[in-house]
Design goal:
Layout lengths: L5 H5 L33 H19 L5 H34 L1
Length: 102
Amino acid sequence: MEDVKKEDVQNLGAEQFVPRPVEADVFQSVEDDSQPEKQRAPPVWWVKFKSFLLECRRVLKITKKPSKEEFKTIVKVSGLGIIIIGLVGFIINVVATFMQGA
């Protein structure tokens, strides 16, 4: 599990977030009450999740609505793929049925 520096977590708005390893004692709690307690970094899974959401937002910003012609082409190709996969499954089922009967 990688440790994350506090300034890395605060700068998550940057396009690319790469956690840097830090010393193990940086995020340990302070035993002496006279010193202020050091803030712990968020869990690595939270940092990765937030980074994923930022990447999704970036992708959604650059995408555009397809034109009517593009949409029709996508529907045709998808439909053709579904029909081909269905036919392959049907042929396999027919062959398996004949093999069991023989």
